[in-house]
Each structure stands twice: as C-alpha cells, then as structure tokens.
Amino acid sequence: MRVRVFYHDRCFDGASSAALFSRFYRERIRNNVEFVFSGLLHRAGSLFDEKQFDGDENAIVDFKYSSSPKITWWFDHHQSAFLTPEDAAHFEQDQSNRKFYDPDFKSCTSFIAAIAEQRFGFNPAPVSDLTHWTDIIDGAMYPDAKTAVEMREPAMKLTMIIESAQDYGFVARLIPLLATKPLANILEEPFVAPLLKPLLERHERSIAILKERIESKDGTLFFDITDQDLEGYNKFIPYYLHPECTYSVGLSKSSFRVKLSTNCALACEAEREARRRRPLHNSCFSPDDESQATHLSASPPHTARAARAASPRGVASHCHG
Ligand SMILES: [Mn+2]
Fold it and tell me: Rounded to two decimals, what is the model's pTM?
C-alpha cells in the first residue's frame, strides 16, 4: 500500500510535519506501507495537480486544503488554509475524523503530534525535540535575536539547509530521518553535512553586509541591499545588530523581484502573543492589494505606500505562509 504525503516544501515545519505524520501513520494506522513524499510550493495559479493524488491514501500537511475526494488526510495551522469559502464549507462538513485544522498551533508538526496523541493514542515523547523546535522556528518564538541568528542549534542549521535546498529530491530524502533520528545526527549524514558550510559562510557574509548598510532612526531600522545577492537572508539579523530597535524596513532583491520586508522584533510579551495568534514570520505586500499585508503583527502603517514609492514597478513579495 502506498501513502503519498504532500507537504510544504523548503520549510522546516513542512518537512517535519511529513515526518511526524508518517511516523504516526506507521505506528497507529498501519505498518506495512510505502511513503512517497511530494513537496508543494505556494505559487500563482493552481496549487495542486490532482493527477498527483495517486496514492492509496493521499495526505496534505502544513499546506492548503483540497476538496478532492482523493485526499484522505489533512492537517494545517495556517490562517490562509482555505483558498475559497467553498473549500472551508467542504472541510466543515467533513465527517472522516481524518482532516484537522487549528490556527492556534505554532507549528503543524506539534499540531499533528497533539491530534495523533489525543485521538489515535500516539506517543509523542520520542519526537518532543522536533515539535519543540518546529514551534520555535515556525512560530518565530525565538527567546532572542541571538538564538535566531547565531545558528548554534541543529534545528536552526537544518532549517537553513531545507530552505535553500536546490535539489528537488533532497527534502524528501531528509524527511524519513526527521522523526526517527536526533537532529544533531541528521546533520552528520553524508548527503547533508557538506551543504552546511557554504550556507554558514553566506550567512556570515549577510551579517557583515547588513552591519555596514543598516541605518537606525527613531527605533526603526532601514536598509537597502538590492545591489547584493542575499536572497533568503535571516530576518532577525537587523535586531541582532541593533537590539534597541523594534521595527525594520528593508529592500532586497532576487533574480526576479524586488522585495520589501517590514518586520517587528520580538521585543516584548505583547508582541510575542500577537505572533502566537498570527504565527507567520514576515509581512508581505503585493503591488495590487495593500490588504494582503495580513501577516504582520505590528508595523508602521505607511510602509506599503512607501514601498510603492520606492519601487516604481511595484513590489513583489514572497509570503512564507
Ligand atoms: Mn507550518
């Protein structure tokens, strides 16, 4: 029997959700199965190719709902889980006890662990380190900018590797290890270990460049690194360098877009609580719709307009949601 698991690709929580789901499935549903892991990315147009729903069971974890009858399991915690009101209504009517949604969870991995324990008798103790770190990383619940930037923890290093994975098969190969091996041991795997050094060097370089570029004004940090190839730089670096500041507004560039990021530091309990309720990391503005700036826990209200002024072609953005 084949179980296909669709997961949020290039995301630590997405990969960990697929890992935890497959462990839970093997232990509590049936053992004699082959898992096939397929990454999904948020992109314009249709998110799913239903022809791919070809397992005897098909699960989606940490990603949007699909009303296809071929999808037999679903877990998500994103505010934006439903593409349409029809999808939400379809989920509301589901009686299968196999589809679960709770946006109060900081990570989908800890959500799967909780449901698997409460409803299916799964023992989450062996995966507690994994769920601890997916909550911190996916919920942006770092105790301080230092933890987020200094990359000491194996989970942080794995996140960096997963988010920058170039090879389509890499994350799928990593998944079976995530719920069965200590994270520090996974970093020593021969197909994982060589990837870390160049990423850490790139990270160090981005810290050095931002250190040089950041201007600090009235508690807000401003920077423009559109002339640098720093796509995917760590969003906590500005606060690590300037702990006195609460907000940052930055322009960066990748091969096909200019991106405006506005962020707020995890400065106090109130902000942390706000992030808990909206567990997303980064705010996103599209050129057409300021109301899409929904992932923001706090920010100066003028930033969307400032972004348009700064970029005549509009500001494209990537929502890590
Ligand atoms: Mn997630």
Answer: 0.80
